[in-house]
Amino acid sequence: MVLFMKRRELYIHASYKGHIETLNGIVRTLSQKIDIAHKGNYFVASEKLLLHTKRPEKSNASENSHSGWKSTGIYPSV
């Protein structure tokens, strides 16, 4: 009976250890993806901020040139 209990403890310990290692791997992968996404969102957010703060001044609405965009260094997406 004692031998059975000891084996069961070892099995449970190994099972939990495997689950913990799996969860650690998942957390590590997710944190890397979050870091990458955060860096990407930072650049997207900063570009949007520039678009909102540096709007080009258009002298004529019918004019189709992008001279206002060239002065800010931000070009409209094609």
UniProtKB/TrEMBL annotation:
Compositional bias ranges of the Polar residues kind: 61-70
Protein origin, superkingdom: Eukaryota
Name of this chain's protein: Uncharacterized protein
Organism of derivation: Stegodyphus mimosarum
Region described as Disordered: spans on this chain: 55-78
